[in-house]
């Protein structure tokens, strides 16, 4: 009887989670936004949407494969399907509270592979640092290549360049001060934090000492390549966006990634960001918004379905 209840809960819990996320995402949309989504889906060429989701799946796979290099360095041999499934679940959880997926990912691997949480979480933090550096590289390339367009846009919006420069300098100086305090200070609170975070630091430092670090670095760049191609493939799904140049694609990808990173899955922020950046290049707000909703909705549905399936498969594939 208990086994039967457990089996039903394994299916019902993720089902209710998925329904809850879908309802939450849907309930926050206005009737106008829902209508725009319907129009964009009616006009879409689903061959390119499917191709976009194939790139998304490859990116999930590559992220799970990259993870094993850091875990192996720490002395843990994990099953690849557990890496992949926990990564997929983490994307789903990130749609509720931003960055909460990282915690669930570490917790699930601890449960199914019996690896200390702090060490697993350390490898995930290391991943995020590497991802942030690569994304920053995209930002630098994009902003240098499109400086004239961005500068003119800021002038039109009455944004002071001096204010932005001062804010960046202050932020950088504060960061340097924090790093110096962390490295050299002998304060009790700092020493206590270092002791508590020793496992976390070990996981983070694994990238510098691992045997296959170049494989790790290759997959780090490959993951972001799949993200870019996922966005690029979706461009061809609508006739109005199929002829835009790659520089516009790059800027749309950068701003779309920022919208997803600083919100729960890019809800509302993603199509707004895409429409904003497309508008700088003379693409109408309706077209930019329609594409934004199409790309966001297809990625969201894919993430929810794959995340739910992964959540169901994890206990099934780890019965022993």
Architecture overview:
- The protein has 320 residues and is mainly alpha-helical.
- Helix content is 82%, strand content 0%.
- Helix 4 runs antiparallel to helix 5.
- The relative contact order is 0.16.
Could you name the key traits of this structure?
320 residues; mainly alpha; 14 helices; 82% helix; globular
Average pLDDT figure: 81
Radius of gyration: 21 Å
Distance between the termini: 19 Å
What is the count of β-strands? 0
| Helical/strand content category | mainly alpha
Low-pLDDT runs of 5+ residues are 7-11
Largest sheet: none
Helix content: over 70%
Number of helices: 14
**Apparent shape:** globular
Secondary-structure element order, N to C? HHHHHHHHHHHHHH
- The proportion of strand residues reads under 5%
Topology:
Layout: H1 2-27, H2 31-43, H3 46-73, H4 80-93, H5 100-113, H6 117-145, H7 147-156, H8 161-184, H9 188-196, H10 198-209, H11 213-235, H12 246-261, H13 269-280, H14 285-317
């Amino acid at each position: 009887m208990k086994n039967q209840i457990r089996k039903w809960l394994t299916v019902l819990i993720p089902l209710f989670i998925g329904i809850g996320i879908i309802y939450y995402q849907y309930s926050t949309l206005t009737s106008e936004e829902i209508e725009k989504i319907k129009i964009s889906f009616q006009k879409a060429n689903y061959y390119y949407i499917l191709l976009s989701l194939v790139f998304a799946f490859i990116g999930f796979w590559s992220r799970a494969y990259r993870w094993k290099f850091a875990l192996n360095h720490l002395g843990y041999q994990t099953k690849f399907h557990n890496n992949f499934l926990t990564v997929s679940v983490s994307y789903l959880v990130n749609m509720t509270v931003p960055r909460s997926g990282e915690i669930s990912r570490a917790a699930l691997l601890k449960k199914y592979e019996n690896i200390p949480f702090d060490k697993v979480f350390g490898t995930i933090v290391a991943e995020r640092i590497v991802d942030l550096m690569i994304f920053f590289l995209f930002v630098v390339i994009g902003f240098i290549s499109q400086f004239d367009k961005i500068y003119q846009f800021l002038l039109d919006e009455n944004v002071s360049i001096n204010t932005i420069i001062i804010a960046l300098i202050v932020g950088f100086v504060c960061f340097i001060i924090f790093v110096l305090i962390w490295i050299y200070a002998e304060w009790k609170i700092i020493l206590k934090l270092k002791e508590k975070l020793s496992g976390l630091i070990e996981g983070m430092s694994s990238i510098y000492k691992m045997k296959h670090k170049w494989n790790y670095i290759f997959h780090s760049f490959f993951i972001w390549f799949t993200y870019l191609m996922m966005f690029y493939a979706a461009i061809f799904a609508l006739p109005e966006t199929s002829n835009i140049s790659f520089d516009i694609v790059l800027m749309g990808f950068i701003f779309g990634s920022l919208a997803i990173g600083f919100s729960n899955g890019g809800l509302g922020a993603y199509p707004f960001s895409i429409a904003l950046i497309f508008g700088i290049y003379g693409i109408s707000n309706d077209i930019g918004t329609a594409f934004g909703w199409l790309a966001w909705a297809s990625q969201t549905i894919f993430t929810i379905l794959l995340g739910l399936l992964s959540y169901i498969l994890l206990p099934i594939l780890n019965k022993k």
